[in-house]
Fold each of these.
Amino acid sequence: MSRKIPCIVLLGPTGAGKTRAALHLARNLPGEVVNFDSRQVYRDFPLITAQPTPEERAVCPHWLYGFLDTEEKLTAGGHVRKCHPVISAIQARGKTPILVGGTGLYLKALLQGLAEVPPVPQEVTLRLEQDLQRVGLAAMHERLQQADPELAARIHPNDKQRTLRGLEVYEATGKPLSWFHGKQEIHSDYHALLLGVQAALPALEPLLAKRIELMLEAGALEEARTAYARCQDPDAPGWTGIGCAELLAFLQGRLSLEEAKALWFRNTRAYAKRQLTWFRKTPDVSWFPHDDPLLPEKMFEQARSFLDGL
RNA sequence: GCCGAGGUAGCUCAGUCGGUAGAGCAGGGGACUGAAAAUCCCCGUGUCGGCAGUUCAAUUCUGUCCCUCGGCA
C-alpha cells in the first residue's frame, strides 16, 4: 500500500513490563529492538535507567541503548536522526523494527516528524541564559511576546525552558519558532502499530518500589559510584535522571540512603504519572493490562495480523 | 523535678497587634514540537493539642492539663 516501513511500537509507563513483551515479539516476528527512552541511552547507568540486561540483549539486536556519556545531551531531534538509519537497516535485514520506550516526545517526533528548525549555536543559548540572570524570566517572556506573539500566548510566563527555546530560535534564525511549526508538514516514514502496556498508578506503585530495591541489590550504588568517578558534575545531563540524582545526593552526603530511596520512589511515581497523562491521549493505541500473564502472546498475535495484513 | 522552646493541612513550617488561617513539599487533575526521567499550569475546612476563663468575638490574651524537643538536675 505504501513504501512506509512497518514497525511495532511498545509504549507505557516505566516499570510496567515493556521489555518482557518486547523480547517475546522480537523472538517470534522476528524483530530487533530500538530504544525510544531518553535515559536508557546513558552508558554509565544501565541498571538505574532499567536498560535491558545483557541476557535480554542476547535475544536479538538492541539499538540505541547505553551509547551516550554522562556529560552528553541527547535531544528529541538528535534521537530521531539516529533512529531513521537504524530502523531502515533493520527492515533491510528483513526484520521487524520494535520500538520500545517511555519518552512520549521522542515517539511523537519519530512518528510525526519535527519542525525543521536549524540548529541554534551554543553561544546564543548561553547569552540568553545570561540575559535571564540579569533581567529575570518575566522580562524574557515579554521579549518573546515581541518576537513571537503566537508562541508566547501558548507558553506560560513561568515556563523558563520553553520561553528560552522560543527566544533562541528567533535569535538564531530571525524567524519565530511558531513559523517553523506552521510550515511543518506532518508526515511519517513509518506505518506503526501502537501497543500499550496499561497500568494504573496504584497498581504500579508496589512494582516501582520493588524495582528500586532490586536495583540496589543488583548494584545500583556501585554503578553510581563508578559513574561518579568518571563525572563529578551533578548538573551533567546523565546525572539528572531519576535514581541517578538521588544516589548522587547520597554519595555526596546530602541525603541519607533512606531519604534518597524515598525521594527516588516519589520521583519515579510522579514520572509514571506524567507518562500516563501523555500516553492517554496518544491516538490509536491498543491497550493491554500489564498484569495479564498472556500479554506478550496477545501482543504478538495482534502484531502478527497487523504485519500480515499489509 | 526545674528552666527554656514548641504543639496550626499527610510532612516541614509561616501567620493572625483578638474578627475562625497560608506557603513549600507530598497528593489529585492537566499541558507538552530539539533539556521531555525535562519544564510548567490548576486544585487548600484544617476540632490552629485538651479543658476552663476574660471578651460581642479566642487559633491569637490568661490559667491549667497533656504531649514533644533542648538545657539543668
Note: DSSP finds 14 helices and six strands in chain A.
Amino acid sequence: MLEKNFHPKEVENRLYQMWEKAGAFRPSDDASKDPYCIVIPPPNVTGRLHMGHALNNALQDCLIRFERMRGKAALWQPGTDHAGIATQMIVERKLMDEEGVRRLDIGREAFLDRVWQWKAESGGMIVDQLRRLGATCDWSRERFTMDEGLSRAVREVFVRLYRDGLIYRDKRLVNWHPDLKTALSDLEVENIEVEGHMWHFGYPIADQNGAPTDQRIVVATTRPETMLGDTAVAVHPDDERYKHLIGSQVRLPLADRLIPIVGDPYADPEQGSGAVKITPAHDFNDFEVGRRHDLPQLSILDEAGRINDAAPEAYHGLDRFEARDRVVADMRAGGFLEKIDPHTHTIPFDEKSKSVVIEPLLTDQWYLNAEKLAQPAIEAVEAGRTQFVPRNWERTYFEWMRNIQPWCISRQLWWGHQIPAWYGPDDHIFVAETEAEALSEAARHYGADTPLIRDPDVLDTWFSSGLWPFSTLGWPDETAELNRFYKTDVLVTAFDIIFFWVARMMMMGLYVMKDVPFHTVYIHALVRDEHGQKMSKTKGNVIDPLELIDEYGADALRFTLLAMAAQGRDIKLAKSRVEGYRNFGTKLWNAARFCEMNECIAQPEFEPGQCQQPINRWMIGEVQTTALNVTEAVEGYRFNDAAGALYRFVWNVFCDWYLELIKPLLNGDEGEAKRETRAAAAYVLDETLKLLHPFMPFLTEEVWQRFGETGHPRSGMLINTSWPKAQTALIDVEARAEMEWVIGLISEIRSVRSEVNIPAAARIPVLLQGADETTRERLERHMDRLKTLARLESIKLTDAPPTGSIQAILEETTVHIPLKDVIDIPTETERLSKEIAKVTTDIDRIDAKLGNEKFVNNAPEHVVETQRERREEAILTRTKLNDALKRLQDAAA
RNA sequence: GGGCGCGUAGCUCAGCUGGUUAGAGCGCCGUCUUGACAUGGCGGAGGUCACAGGUUCAAGUCCUGUCGCGCCCACCA
C-alpha cells in the first residue's frame, strides 16, 4: 500500500542505482533502432551544479528519456571540461592556502600532477550532482577533455589546421590578463561601463630642428600612461585646422621623443579636438593606424602590467595605474595638461572575475583563421542543415559569424592541451603530433639531428570543446559509435555560449567531419532570480538546485524548470513555483493511491477500445488526446506546453473529474461496469505514468514498480517502457459530449448552490426543466454521480423549457431553506440588476455583430453559429434573471 | 551605432499559424476535515492585454509610431 505522501529522498537514489545497474542508460545495440544522440555541454570539472545546469540537463534528460521510450537507441554522451583557467586558478589558490607555495615554485610538472590529483579527488562532484537530478547519461562513456583520446583528437586537428594554413603564428595586439599573464580571446573580455576621466594633453609641435615650440596640438585620452608609448598624432587628412601640420612633428613630453603628425581618416574631426594620439602597441585602433603609416610599435608595459624599460626611467616598474597618476602629475607640472573632464566609458575586464582590467598587449600568439572556417558553418545554417530553435538565434549566429575575427587560441597557462609545436634553434616552427615526428622533421629540415624546444603554451579550452561532438565518440578512430551517432541530433544550451561553443563546434565539425555536428540547436532560457537578475555568487542571489532537490525532490525541480522553459524567455525562478509542482506530484501519488485502494489493477488483456461505459470511453479518449499533445509538444521543443498539458490532464481531468465520477461505481456492487472501470482506471494511470516519466522520472517509476508488487507483475521498468502512441480511433466523440454535459451540469448546480448560499452539507432536491429523451437517458445513467458530486437529494424533471436553471433551484430550495434566511435581499437584488445589465450589453453587442453583413458573410460558419447560440443563451439567461429578481422582490414584500 | 526581446490579474508568467466569455501557479476572500490527497476539495473576487494609430467581418495575437524595461554585439581619442 502506498503511503500518504511520496518521499523523494527515500526513493531517488535507490531508483537511480537500479536504472544504472540495469544498464538502462546505455543505448540499445539493436541495429534496427534509429540512433538518437545528444552530447552534453560538458560542465567544468571545477563546477558545482547551478540552476543553469539543472535546466539544461533537465531538458536533455527529458528528450533522451522520451526518445528512448519511443524506441530509439538513445545515447546521452556525458563528460566534463578541463576548464583551463578556472581549474588552474583553483589549484593555485589551494596550493597557496595549504602549502604557501606558488605554481612557479614547484614547476610545471609538479603543478600539473597536483591538478590531476585534485581532479581525481574532487572533479567528480558535478557528475554526482547530475545523477541526483536524474540525468540518464551513459556514464560508461564518460569523457574528459584532457583524456588521452580527446587530447589525441586535439593534436590531430591542430596539426591538420596548421598544415592547411588555417593556424598560424602572429604578432599582434591581444587581450592580455596582467594577473594571470596570459592572452585571452575577444569573447573572454567583457566591456563594462565605468565613470572615469578624459585627460586633455597639449603636445608641443616641434620646429624644423625638433625643438618644441609654443604651438600645441591637443589630444585626449582615458589612459594617460599610454602616452609614454605614443608614436604619432593623427589628424583627419581633410581637416582644415590641422591639414598643414601633417608631416611635421611633435615633441612628446616626458618621453621627450619626436613623433610625426600623420593624416589618417581614423581621426574624427567631430570628436574632441579632432587630433588623436596614436599608441600602436596599446590600442586596437591605433594598431591599425600604425600599420597603415608604418609607425613603430612601442610597447611600454611588461606582462604584469608594469611600465618597462622602453619608457623613461622615472616610470620603470610602476604599475599601470600608479603610472597613470604619475604621468598626469608630471604632465600637469610640465604645463601640458589642458583639462580633465569626467567621462563615462567602457573598460575591458576579464569576463570571469570582472575585476581585472585587460590590457591590449603586443605578443606572439597562435591564431586560427576563423573567417575561413566560418564560411561553411554559415552556409550550413542558411541551408537549414542545422536549425536553431527558436529560429531568431540564427540572426545572432550569422551576425557574429559574418564578422568573425581571428581566434587567438594560445594561452600562457600550464593546465590545458600543450600546443604541439616545437622550435628549432633559428625559431623555425615544427608542428607535429608527437615530439618524435617533430624531431624527424627537424632532422630533415636541418640535415642533421637538431634539438627542439616545445612551445610552452596551451590551447584555449574552447578549442577542445569545439571537437566535443566527435572526439567523445572516438574520433580520430573510426569507431562504431562515431559512425552510428554522428551527426548528433540536438544540442541543448543557453544563448550565452552560442559564440564560445556552438559556433566553434559548427566550424570544427564541418572542417573535420565534413558534416554538421547536430541538426538542431535548442537554445533555452537563462535562469534568473525572482527579480530577473542573473544569479551570481557576488550578488548572493543564487538558488541552489541541490537544496531545492533536498526540499522538494528532483521531480518537482525538473517539472518546474520544464514547465517554465518557454522559448526565448528568461526564467524567473520562485520557490513557490517549485512547491506548487511538488504538490502536483503529491496529487498524482494520491491518485495512484486511490487506484490502489480500489483495486484498479492493470489487466494485461485489457482492450481500451472494448469499454462500454461512456465515462471510461471518454477518459480513454482524453488520454489519447494528451498523448498526442505531449508528443507533439516535445517533438517541437515546447516543453512548457507538454508539461502544461500533463498537469491539466492529471489534475483537472483525471483527478478532479474522472476519479470523482467513478467513486459511486467503485463503492457500489460488484459487476461488469465496476470491473471495466477498475481496469480502465488502471490503464489510464499506466499511460499517464509513461507520459509523465520524462518529466518526473522518480515518482512515476516508483508508482510503476509498486503497482507491479501488488497487481500483475511488471514486465520491466518504466524507463524502458514504450511511449504511448496516441490512438485517435479511441477518441469517442459521443462519450466525450456526454461526459462534458454531466460535468457542465454538476458545475452549474454547484455554482448556483454557492450563489444562493446553500450550506455545503445540505442535500437539496433539484428540478430540471426541458428534459428531452436524450437528457433523460443521460440523467438515468449518471444519477448517482450527479447526486454525489452536486450533493443532490433528488432530481425532478419537467417538460417546461430548457435545462437546469437558477430559477429552478431557487424554487426548489425554498422548500427546505427559507430564502430570506440565506439571502440578503437588497444585496442580491443589486447583484441581479447588475447581472441583467451586463447580459443586456452582451446581447446588444452580439446583435450588432450578427447584423453586420460582412461578418455573417465572411466569418467561418462555426464562429457565426457560436454567436447565434450565445445570443439565444444570453436572452434565456436574462429571462431567468428577471424571473429571479421578481421572485426576490416578492419575497421581500 | 547595429541587433534581439519584453510590457497580459497583487506577484511570477502562459497564450502556436488572427476566430467562442483572455488562462495557470502563488497570493487573497468564503466554505468544507466527506474513506486518495489540507502538499487537499468546492465556490469566488481580481485584467480598458503599456499607449496611440492602422489592416480586418474579427486584433492580446498582424503593421506603423510613442513611452518604459532588459539583453547581446560594436565603438567611444
Note: The two ends of chain A are 60 Å apart (CA to CA).
Amino acid sequence: MANIHFAKIEKKWQKRWEDEKAFEVSEKSKKPKYYVLDMFPYPSGTGLHMGHAFVFTLGDIFARFKRLQGYNVLYPIGYDSLGLPAENAAIKVGTHPKEYTANSMKNFMKQQKAMGWSYDWSRLVKTHDPEFYKWDQWIFLKMLEKGIAYRKKAPVNWCDKCLSVLANEQVVNGCCWRHEDSEVKIKHLEQWFFKITNYADELLEGLDKLDWPDRAKKMQRNWIGKSYGTEIVFKIDGKSWPIFTTRPDTLMGVTFMVVSAQHSKLMEIVTTKQKKEVESFLKKIKTTSEKDSDKLNKEGVFSGSYAEHPLTGEKVPIYVGNFVLADYGSGMVMAVPAHDQRDFEFAQKYKLPVVQVIRRENVSVKSYLMGASKINDEDLTKLNIEIIEKTEDGDRKIIIPKDKLNDYEKLIINKLDNGFWNEYLSDEIIFLFKHKNGKVERIILDKKSEEKIDKLASEFIGKKWTKSCVWKWLAENNFYTDLIIHEDFGKLINSGKFNGLESKEAKEEISKILQAKKLGKKTVNYKLRDWLISRQRYWGTPIPIIYCDKCGAVPVPEKDLPVKLPEKVKFGKGNPLETANSWKETKCPKCSGKGRRETDTMDTFVNSSWYYLRYTDPKNSKEIFDKKKANYWTPIDQYIGGPEHITMHLIYIRFYAKFLRDLGLLKFDEPALKYFTQGIVKASDGEKMSKSRGNVVEPLETIEKYGADTLRLALVSFGLPDADFNWNEKILLGSNKFLNKVYDYFSDFKSGKKDVKIDNKMNKSIELITKDIENFKHNLAVIKIRQLFDSFQNVKIDKNNAESFLKLLHVYCPYITEELYEKLGNKKLISLSEWPKVGKIDEGLLKAEESLEKTIEDINYVINLIKEKENKDVSKIFIYVMPNEVENFDSASLTKRFNKEVKVFAVNDSKKYDPEGKAKKAKPGRAGIYLE
RNA sequence: GCGGGAGUGCCGGAGCGGUCAAACGGGACAGGUUUAGGACCUGUUAGCUUAGUGCUUACGAAGGUUCGAAUCCUUUCUCCCGCACCA
C-alpha cells in the first residue's frame, strides 16, 4: 500500500483554497445564509493544543457540511488577543504584550491553516487592534448614555496574583478563576459596572427559545437565579428594615432575625452595650471564614436590638451572623428555625426557640413509648409497628403506619399504666394522659395547651415538662426532629388565624395582609449581579473616561475614539497605566482644564461579547458595523465552544445583543440560536494533557506524522463529540489506515457500471450520515462512512457514487478528498461542490443483502466446524432459499468469494441436490445450507 | 445540600419499547500471506448446544408497567460535572 504524501497534498490544496478565495463570502449571495461560529481563541504562546484542534475541527466540519448543502456560510475567525496571559508573559519574559501577541498569532495562524479549517480569513478580527476596541469604547459610551454603565464604590473581589479585581463570575470557591491558589479578597473601590441586571428577566425568558443543551440552559437559569417572594418590613427602633423571603407562610414561626456581618448599616442595629462583642466577632470571622469551601459553621452574636414582628408585634431578637449574604435580598433574614436548615443550626447553637408552623401530611407517625412495660413487642409487631430502637430501661422508639394509628391509640389506652402518659407525633405532637381513675385525656400540643401539658406532666412524673426541655431532648435524640424540622409545604399550625391554611394559600393571604398594612409586598429577587468591568491591568480596552476636578467623570467624545493604549508603561508594579504619565494626563473634554484618564481597562469578556458582529463588517471604520450586513448574517445559526463559557461569556454575549438591539442596531433577541458544547480531550491516561505530566500530544506533530486528515478523522472517531474522551494512539493509526485504503482505491479509480445495490446502499448511507452530522454524532457518521466503503471496496463503482462518497468523507478529510476528487477528473473544488442527494431507497434490497451476509456467516462457521471436527476441507456449497429470494444469491460471486463451488437452489426445486434435507431449514430471510 | 449527566462485553463506545448476545473500533485468539518481524487478509471472541437458523443467563442493584424492557416508571447504590450559606 502506498503511503499518502500528506504534506504535499495539504500544501497544494491550502494554496488552491487561498488562491481561489474559496471560503470568502459576501452578503450578495442568492443562497440562504448560515453563520457557523467557533469561539475565537486566545492566542497563547504555547500555540494550538489538542482541545483547540478538536473544537475548531467540529466547527469546520459543520461549516463545510452546510456549505455543501447549499448555504452561504459565514465561517470567520479572529483572536481574542487582549488579556492577562500576554501581560503576565510580558512581566515574566520582558517582552511587550503587543509583541508577544503578534508572535502567538503568527504561530496560531500557521497551525490553523495546517488543520484545513475553512475560514474566511479576509474577515480576521483581532481584539487588540485599536480599530476593534474603539468600538468597545463606543459601546461603553452608549451604555453610559443609557444608564447601563455606571460607577460606584463597591466591595469588590480582588486577586493578588492578577493584581486586579474580578467579576463575580470569575470567583471560584472563593479563589481566583485563573489562580486556584489565590484567595479572593474584598476591597472597597470605585469601579465601573454594567447593569446586566436590567436584562435579568429577559435573559431568563429568552432561554426557552434557544436550541441549547439543557445543561447550559439550566446553568444559566441557576446563575440568574430568579426567585419569587415577599418583602416583609420589620421595624427596628421605629425604622423600617425590609427583608426578603420566599416563605411568607412561615412568618408566624419567626423566632429571631439574622443580619449579615458584612451589612453596610450593621452598626445602626448594634446597641452600644453589644458593640464590643460584635466587633470582636467581626474580627474573628474575617480571619477564619474565608477559604472554607465546605459549609461553614453558623456563627453569630446578639446585636442587642429587637425587631417588631409585623403581624404579632412581638419583639424578635436580632443576631449578627456569618452565614447571611450581604448582597442578596437586603442582607438580613427572618429566621424560621423549624423550616430552614440553616436557621435551625443557628437556633440550636444559640439555644433559640423553635416553633413548628408547617405540618406535613402523609409522613410516618413516630412515637416514643416510655415505661409502658405492659405493652410487649408482639403487641406492636402485630400492628405492623416498627421498633427502631430500644433503650436500657425499656423505652422504645417506634414508627406506626398511618392507618394503624387508631389501633395504636386503643392499645396504649388499654395497656398504659394508670397515671402515665404517652406522646406521639403524627401531624402534631399528641399527648395521651391516663389518669389514676382510668380517664384518658388527649391533648394536642400547641401554644395554648403547653401550660396544661406541663402541669399534668409534672403531676405524673414529678418533674416539670417544659418545651425547652423537649427541644433539648429533640436535639440530643434527633428522633422527632425530622418530622418538625423540614422545609416542605403543608398546612399551617401554631399560626393563629392562619391555622389550617395550605402553604400556598397562606403565602397569598399573609402577603395580602402585609401589603394592606404597608409592611410588605410580593417581589422578585435575582442572584445575578451587575457586571463589574474595571480591571487594573494594561492589556485591555481603556475605559474612555477622563476625570476632571471640576466636571467629574467625563466621557471621551466619540470623535476622539479610540483611546489607544500607550506603548510605554512599566509592568509588574500595580496598574501599568498609572505609570504612563504623559498618557494619563490630558485635557478635560468639557472644560479643557486639567484632566486625568481612567487608568482601569475593561474586562476582556467585553470584547468577546460582540466580536461576532464585527465579523460581518470587519473593516468598517465609520461604524461599529453596517446594520444591513450585520442583520443579514446574524444571529449565529450554530455556535460551538467549551462548556466553561456557559456562565460567563454566554451570558455576556446575550446581554450585549439585547443592549445593541435596544440601541436599534440589531433585529434579533438572541445572538446564538444553536449552541454545541464539545467534550474535553484528555491524555491517554485519562488525565488532563499538561506539560508537567508530559502527556501532551501536539496537533502539529501529529499532522506532520499522519496528516491533518488523519488527525481530524481520529478526533471525531473517539466518541461522541460532547463527551470527554481520552486520546488513543490506536484510533489515530486506524484512521490513518482507513484513509490509506480510501486513497488507494480512488487514486487508481476506474469507473464501474452503475449498480442498483450500490446505489441503494449509497442512498441509505447518505440519508443516515446527513442526519448524524446534523446532530453532531460524528463518531457514528464516520462508522457509517467506513461501512459504506467496506461495502464497495472490492468492486468497481461508478463515478457518480465515487464522488458522492468523497463528498461524505470530505467534511472530515478535506485534503485527500480534494486530491481524489481531482483525480476523478474534476476541475472544480470539492469544497464548493454539492452535498449528495438521497435517491430512492429500496429497503427490501437492503434486507436481502443482510440475509446474504448472514448466510455467508453461517457458511463460514460450518466450514470451520468441519475443518476442526473432521479435519476436512469443504469443496462444495449448496444453498437453499425461498423461490423469490433466489435472485439475491449470485452463485458466481459467491463462488469467487469462497473460492469453492457454490450452487443455489430454490427450496421448491425438485431437482435440487440435498442429501440431508437442509432445504427444510430455510426460512424467509435466512437460507438453508449444505456443505461437502 | 441543590442541579445536570452517566453506569452495557476484556476496553472505548452504539442501541433508547419487540427485528439485540448487542453496530463500529481496539485488544485477545486462530488461520492465511510473509525469510522472520511488521503490515495486510480471513475468521472467532457470554455460556451451553446442533454442521449454522436453538436454548439459557446478560445491559450497576431491587421492584413495577407491558403480551414483550438495556430501552418506560419507582426506589437504591456508584461515578463524573456544574452551583453552592441565594433566605
Note: The radius of gyration of chain A is 38 Å.
Amino acid sequence: MIEKKWQKKWADEKLFESNPNDKEKLFITVAFPYPSGAMHIGHGRTYTVPDVYARFKRMNGYNVLFPMAWHVTGAPVIGIADRIKRKDKWTLDLYENVHRVPKDELPKLEDPEYIVRYFSSEYNEVMHDMGYSIDWRREFRTIDPTYKKFVEWQITTLHEKGLIQKGEHPVKYCPNCDNPVGDHDLLEGEGVGVNELTLLKFKIDDKILVTATLRPETIVGATNIWLNPDIEYIEVDADGENWIITREAHHNLSNQIKDLEIKDEINPDDLIGKFALNQFTGTEIPILPASFVSGDYGSGVVFSEPADAPADFIALKDLKNNTELLDKYGLNDIIGDVNPIPVCTLKGYGEIPAKDIIECLEITSQNDDKLHEATNELYKAQHSKGKIIDTVEGYGGKKVSVAREELKEELISKNIATTMYDFAERPVICRCGENCVVKIMDDQWFMKYSNPEWKEKTHEVLENETIIPGEIKNNFNYYIDWLDDWACSRKVGLGTKLPWDNQWLIEPLTDSTIYMSYYSIARFLKDMNPDDLNLAFFNKVYLNEDSDDITVAPEVIKEIQDEFNYWYPLDWRLSAKDLVGNHLSFLMFHHSAIFPKDKWPRGTVVFGMGLLEGNKMSSSKGNVILLKDAIKDYSADVVRLFLMASAEPWQDFDWREKEVLGTKRRLEWFKDFANKVEQIKGSSLDLNSIDKVELTRTIDLWMLSQLNQHVKASSEALEVFQTRKALQESLFLLKKDIDHYLYRVNHLLDKKDEGVIYVLSIIVETWIRLLSPFTPHTCEELWAEYGGEGFASSAQWPQVDESLINPKIEKSEELIQNLIKDIEQIKKMVGDEAEKVHIYTAPDWKWDLYEIANEIGKPDIGQIIGRAVKADICDDKKEIANVAKKLGREMTKTKYVGKIDEADIINDALEYISKEIDCEVIVHEDDSYDPQNKARNAMPYKPAILIQ
RNA sequence: GCGGGGGUGGUCGAGUGGUCAAAGGCGCUAGGUUGAGGGCCUAGUGGGUUAGUCCCUUCGCGGGUUCAAGUCCCGUCCCCCGCACCA
C-alpha cells in the first residue's frame, strides 16, 4: 500500500526522468531482459543492483540515467509459440504453472510476438512494483521500426568497415526443423562437441571405401578395413567418385557435401575378404568384419590400426579367435598376415600401446564398455606426448599432434582424403525428436571477431575499463582472444533483416551490442517517422558526419545529438556472468569499431547467479519464486533488502525463506525506531529542525563516532557496488551499535536527556537516508512522517564528519566493556559475594613505554627496554623489563591509539559499571591503597582490578 | 584438454603479513523481558587451564620465506564455472 503510494508520487513528480543539465551525469544500464517468461527473484537481483546504485549516486548529486528496454529479437519465442500451438504438455504446464499465465491467455501465446508483448508488459509492471528508478520514457522493444533502423545503421557501418564477411561453418542442425539448434534446444546430447574427422579414401575397383578417423597419421599403420555386416551400406556419387558409406552416415554427410546422391545398395558380405588399396602407402589391405563399427558415426567405414586403436586391436583378436566367422568369409588364409604395425612411440608403453592399455584395463571383447575409456586415454596421451616412429618417411620422430596436421594436409592435397564433421558422441536429438546432424552452413555472414586489429582495439577498450569484480578482467582478455568469427545471420526468429542481403535476419546478440547509445535518444525517436532515420541521420547524431541525405530538421538533430553526447559514454554496464564470453565482449568489440575512444564504455559489473534454498534456480525445472509473489508475500523493500544484503552482486545469492524473514524483522525494527525515539523524546520528532547539543558524555560521542564510521564504510562500499558490505555497515553493524547505545544509556531514557535525544535524532535522520537506496518506500514514508524535507530519494546522501570519528573515544568504550567483562569473570571465579571493586589505572610511565614501543613498531623487546631505560621513564629498571616483555606479547594485539585519560573515562561510566556488576566501584590512580598488590598489573587500556 | 575462480567453525560467509579464535547472518544452548516455548534483548557456541590469564589445536594437504602467514612463494589434492551460432 505505502509502496504503491510512493511509486505514484515519484511518477507524478517525474523524479526519475533524466534530462541533460549542468550536473555531473551518470549513465548506468543493465542487460535488458528477453521476456519469454515471468520475472523471478533472480531477475529481481539483476535489476535491483543498478537501481540501488542509481539511487545512491542521485543522492550524491549526480544526474543519473537508468533506462530499460526489451530484447524481443531471436528464436526462442518461435519455438515456444510452436510448442504451445502443438499443445505440448510440458510447455503448457510450464507456462500455466511456473510462469502463471492465466488460462484464457494461454492460447494467445501461439503468437510469438504476443509472448514477448505479454511478458514485457508483465516485466514492466513488476519493475514498477519493485520501485525501480527507471526513466520509462526511453522504453523500447527491439522490433520497434525505429530501433530496426538503428540496427540497420550499425550493421551497415560494420559491413562497410569490412568487419562482416561471408563464410561457411559447421553447425548442429535439425533436418526436421530445418534450422540450426543450440544446446538448449536439445532433448538429448547437451554439451556434445563437434569433431572434425578426416575421410581417408581406400580404392577398391572403381569404388572408394571412405573411412572416417580422428587420427589420420595412423594411416601408415593401417592393416585392414572394418565393415559391420549387420548394417546397411550404400554407394553414393560424390562429385564423380563412387563412395561406399552407410545409409545412416549419408543422413549426416549429405548436409556437408553437396549432391551426395545414392546410387546403389551395397551388401557388405560381398566386400569382406576382398582387398582395398591404401593410396598413401601403396599396400593392399583386406576388408574384415567387425561388430563394434557403428553405422551412424563418421562414414560407418573404418580402417584398422590395431597398434594404437584399442578397438581395432581387440576386434582383430576377436576375429582371429572366431573360427566360425573366419570360415564364413573364407578368411583363414589371409588373417594370419594381419598384425599390428607400430606407428607411435609413447613413454610408459610398449611397441603396441593398444595392447598394453587393453591388458591394463582388462578388456576382453570389442563390445566392452571400457573400450571407450581406453581409446580416450590413449588418444590423449599420444596427442600430448607421443611421437611417430623413426622409420616413417617424412614424419619419423615428429610429435603425433604435429604429424597429424601435416599428414592431413598432404593427404587432402593428394585427394587421398577430405574432411567431414560429426558429433563427438551420439545421440544428439532435437526437441522435435529428430536425430540432429552436422550441417555446413554456407552463404552465412560472419562478424569478423578474428580480425587482429579489431581484437587489438577491443583489448584497448577493456584496458580502459573498470571491471567489477577485478578477477573477471582476465576472463575478458581470454575471451577477446578466443572469440572467432561469429555467425551473425539467421533464418528464423524475430529481428531485423540484413540490409544488403534480405534473406537473412540479424542474429539477436549482434543486434544488441551498442543499444545503450539508443537509450540516450530513444525518447525523441519514439514518435519520429522511421523513414527519416536513415544512415545519414545516425551518422550525424552519433558520429557528427554531415550529409545531404539528412531529412530531419537541423535543430531537431542538434537536440538529439546533444542528448547523446551528454549521456555517452556509458559509465556502467551490468550483466550476469553468463554473458561475459559473448554479449559483454561483443559490446566492447562493437564500441571499439563504431565509436571514437571518448565514447567507449567505462565500467562493467558482472553478476552471479541465484540459488533457491541451496539449489540452482531454474524456470524450466519449476524451481523459482516469481518476483511478483515475493513482493506480495514480503513487500518490495524486504525483497530488495534481502537481495542486496545476502551476497555481493557477483556472488551467488541464496534465497532462504528463514533469512528473508529475518530481513523482514530487521526492517520492521528499523521502521519502528523513529517511533521509539519519538517516545523517548516525549514530543514529535522533526528531522528538519534538530537542535544541536554540545555532547560531553563519552558514550554519546562514541555513538556518533560509530555512526560516522558506518556511513563512511557504507559509502565506500556502495561506490564499488558492494551492496552487501554497505548494508552490513549501514544496517547490521549500525543496529548493533544502536542496541548497545540504548543499553548503555538505558538509565537516561526516561529522563528526557537532551544529549541522548540529540544523538538518537541524528541517527534517525542519517539512517533513513542511508537506507533509502535499498528500501526506498519505507524510507520515503518515514522521511515524510518525521518531517524530512522533500523526497528521501532526492535527499542528500549522509556526509561523513571526520571530526566526529574518534579512535580514542572508541577505545574508551572498548575499555569500559572489557573492564565489565573482566570483573564479571573474576567475580564468577572467586565465587564469594563481592562488595567492593577497586580499579587501578596504568601509571604514566607505562604509557610512555607504550609510546616507545609504538614508535619502534615491532615487538623488539631489547630495543624497547633500551630506549625506555635511556629515557628514564621509571626508577625501577627491573619493572620496566617485566612490563616491556608483557607489552611485546600484547602490542600486536592491541591497537594503540594514544594515551587516554582512563580515570576520567571510568568515572564517566561509573554509574553504568556499578549497575552492570552490581557492586560499589572505586577508582584509584595510584597504589596508595593496594592490599593485595594488584595495582602493578595495570596496563594501558587494561586497568588492574581488586575485588573484595 | 584450454581458460577463469575457489577450498576458513554446525552452515552461509568477512578476512589489507601483526589489532584474527576468526566480523556479520542463519542454526543451536542458556539467561532476561513477555500474555510460558512467538518476537525482542543479553551471553555462549574447538579443547584445556586460570583472579580478568595462559597454553594447545585450527583456515584442503605438504614444504618454504619472515621476529610474525588464512594472508606471500613452491609443490600437491579436490571443487565450481565457461568453451559459442544462443538468451
Note: Chain A has a mean pLDDT of 89.
